Amino acid sequence: MTVLVASDLDRTLIYSTAALGLTMPDLRAPRLLCVEVYESRPLSFLTERAARLLTDLGDAALFVPVTTRTRKQYQRVNLPGPQPTYAICANGGHLLVDGVSDPGWNARVTARLAAECAPLEEVREHLARTADPSWVRKLRVAEDLFVYLVVERELLPDGWVKELASWAGERGWTVSLQGRKIYAVPAPLTKSAAVREVVRRSGAEPVLAAGDSLLDADLLLAADRGWRPGHGELADTGWSAPSVTALPERGVLAGERILREFLRAARRR
């Protein structure tokens, strides 16, 4: 039986310059491989060791990238190893099969959101009205499914995210703070639901998973075994679950450790 490895990308496997967490002396820093370029600038990295592990993992398991990124943002990422047969974008809103979004899956997701959640425009208008321009840099709608802010974290008022989460929760939405981004996402729009669909189509199991944010919690809980890094929203809140291992590594070295754990577990099957 083929193992399915479903992993978040940003701050789990790949890291921006600000998120690398290179606390060691410069001479001991790991060699890095750039896996994303945007507007001619290198944007995301993993270690060269992690790149080799990911290549090996692609041969040992069914590797499925699972991300809140839009399809366009995901397609900028050039991961080492075989091209994934399946990828999950927009927090589960788009299921890519050989790089192409499955329209039937997207239609099912959008129908459920329309039936169970407050409209996207209501949430977008609330954010536009309550977020102060002094600390908001961007307000974006992603794939007509959810909305997010790019903010200056040091200027973000204490308690604002908590208040937003309370308001959103009453309307069937969740809120996640990840680095400089604040996401408002419909509660039924989940990574785990899309992964279950990949399991149904592929027959691959068990499921191994990794992630660092609140939007990864459902994915980790649905997996047979999971890992989270020592940084991020889940680590900051002390989130834990019996089947999830909390790793001590932080930054890009956590990504390397996660891939090592994935590969070790996949080879034991």
General description of the model:
This protein has 269 residues and is α/β, with parallel strands linked by helices. It folds into 2 domains: 4-110 and 189-268, 3-Layer(aba) Sandwich (Rossmann fold); 118-186, Gyrase A, domain 2 (2-Layer Sandwich), CATH 3.30.1360. It contains 9 helices and 14 strands.
CATH class of the largest domain: Alpha Beta
Strand order of the largest sheet: 4-1-12-13-14
Q: Hey, roughly how much beta strand do the residues contain?
A: 25-35%
The helicity comes to: 25-40%
- Helix count equals 9
What is the CA–CA distance across the termini?
A: 8 Å
Tell me about the largest β-sheet: 5 strands, parallel
Number of domains: 2
Counted beta strands: 14
Q: What Rg do the Cα atoms give?
A: 18 Å
The residue-averaged pLDDT reads: 97
Based on CA inertia axes, which overall geometry fits?
globular
Structural class: alpha/beta
Give the assembly state of these chains.
single chain
Uncertain parts: none
